[in-house]
Specification:
With 256 residues, the chain is of the alpha+beta class. It contains seven helices and 13 strands. The chain has helices at residues 3-7, 33-44, 83-93, 108-128, 166-185, 222-239, 247-255; strands spanning 16-17, 26-27, 50-57, 61-67, 73-79, 136-140, 143-147, 150-151, 154-155, 189-190, 199-202, 205-208, 215-216. The strands form five sheets. The protein has a five-stranded antiparallel sheet with strand order 3-4-5-7-6, with helices on both faces. Helix 5 packs antiparallel against helix 6 and helix 5 (166-185) crosses helix 7. The radius of gyration is 19 Å and the shape is globular. Bound molecules: adenosine-5'-diphosphate and manganese (II) ion.
Length: 256
Amino acid sequence: ANVLIENDKRVDKDRIRMKDKSDHATTENVLDSRIKKKLHKLFERGVLAEINGCISTGKEANVYYAKSKNQDEIAIKIYRTSILTFKNREKYIRGEYRFDHVYSLHNPRKMVKIWAEKEFSNLKRLEQGGIRAPRPLLYGGHMLLMEFLGSDGWASPKLKDAILTESKSRMLYRECIEIMWKMYNKCRLVHADLSEYNILYHNGSVVVIDVSQAVDRDHCNAIEFLRNDCSNITAFFKKHNVGVMSLQALFDFITD
Ligand code: ADP
Ligand code: MN
C-alpha cells in the first residue's frame, strides 16, 4: 500500500486508484482517454515506471506522484478541461505576446494545452533565473511532468502549513522578496497567484510552484498582479509577526 494514498483521506471522485502493474494507471474521470494514451506512451518510452497516487486534487488541476525507471520522483500535473476553469484563465493569457496569437475562445482543449506549455516555459525561465522551483521535465496535451519536491514520497508542505519559528519566518520573508525581485527583474515574470498556497516549504527554504498563470512583465495587467502578490506575501508574514516593509516600499523595491 502507498503512504500517499493512505495519508489522503479525502474522498474525491477524481482521484486516481492505484496501482495495478498490468494496467499502469487505473483511473476514474479525470484521466480522459487522450491523457491515458499519453501516459501509456511515457510508460513505453521508459519515462515513467509507476504512478503511485494523488498528491492533490484542486479546482484547476490534479497532481500525481510518479517514479521514473531510474527511481527519480516525478510530479505529474494534469489540468482540468472544464469550461469554468478555462474562463478563469482568460485574463492571464490575453494581453501577452507569448500566447495571444494561439488563444482560441472556442476550443477549451487547445486552451488547456497552452496552459501546460505556459507553465513549462515559465518554469524554464525560473530555472534560468536561478529561482528555486520544480525542474520542468516535459509537457504534452494538458499535462506537465516536473521534479517532485518532497522526501521519501511525501510532498513538502505548503508554506501555509509549515511550522515556523519567528526567526525562520523572517528568513523566509527575505527569501520571498528575493524571489519576487528575481522573477521580475531576471525572468521578466510576475507570478500572479503568489501566496502561502503556492509556495512550498522544502528543505528549510521556500520554493515557488504553480506558475501556469504567471505572466510576462509586458502583460497589460502585470502591475496589478504584482501588487496583489506583494499584498498576499506581506499579509502572510505579518500574521507571523515579521516586521514587514510597507506594501509600497516592497512594490518599489521590486520594480525600481
Ligand atoms: P493547483 O493549485 O492549480 O491545483 P498546484 O501547482 O498549486 O496546482 O499544485 C497543487 C498542489 O500539489 C500543491 O499545493 C502542492 O501541494 C502539490 N504539488 C504541486 N507541484 C508539486 C511538486 N513539484 N512537488 C510536490 N508537490 C507538488
Ligand atoms: Mn496552487
